[in-house]
Amino acid sequence: MKLGVVLRAENLIREKEFRRNRVVTPHGPVDRIFSGTLHGVETHFLYGRFPGRRTPSWEIPYQANQSAFDELDVGHQIGTYVVGGVDKSVRGGDLVIPHDLISFSGPSVSMPPGNGRFSNAHVVPAFCPVLRSLLIRGARETGTAVHESGVYFNFYGFARIETDAELNLMEKLGVRLVGQTLDPEFTLARLRHRHYVAIAVAIDSYHDMKNEAEQDPDVFRARSRQAIADGRESFERIIEAGLATRGDDPAEKCGCDRVATGNHRDMFSSFPEDLL
Ligand SMILES: [Zn+2]
Question: What total number of domains does the chain contain?
Fold first, then answer.
């Protein structure tokens, strides 16, 4: 297993003496990668998916980040996220390991041609069961409370947060969390048949924010900063403990790198090309 993790893993980078890496990709250089070994696993931390400054979600260099993992031969990826809680059980500061996602907006980036023929990514199951087990085991080992399932609603490509009606709809759909950054990273990683898993920290909750006007913005900001800092530290400990107790996880048994065979899973690839 060669692992890529999108996370500012400041403690592990320092403790394990990871070295800074610069990777030049066809989509531009990626110079915030830290590489080393964690419990026998070659690990590369991408120090945040934003390029060191705040950008709208559609300007995040997803293609360059994924290409950097290609260059490093990363086969397994953990994406870490800051999200909002949607269902009532999620409060600010909670951690969630989602089991699936809804991504209606669609990634507005051009997709890599692969070997010249486009083929849709296989996304059932969405997240790698072996990597999910690794995170759940890491959380239990470290005594960290996490929601071990949930649907992430990806809200990508809008320069705003969700409307009340949108959040209300998500709640009716049974969504647990909402965020702007899981896709297109997820799709780009799965197009490469990369094993992929996500873990998120909620900085607020839809139900607590319903009376947003009554809240002090400074208190909210301070609470969010704390939730993000605590979340990142928990992600580090969970990943480390999950790797430490990995044993002989048969990664190949998860089926992530299998190409879909059922035609109903990919109408596009089963459509006769001469009719396109
Ligand atoms: Zn897998």
Answer: 1
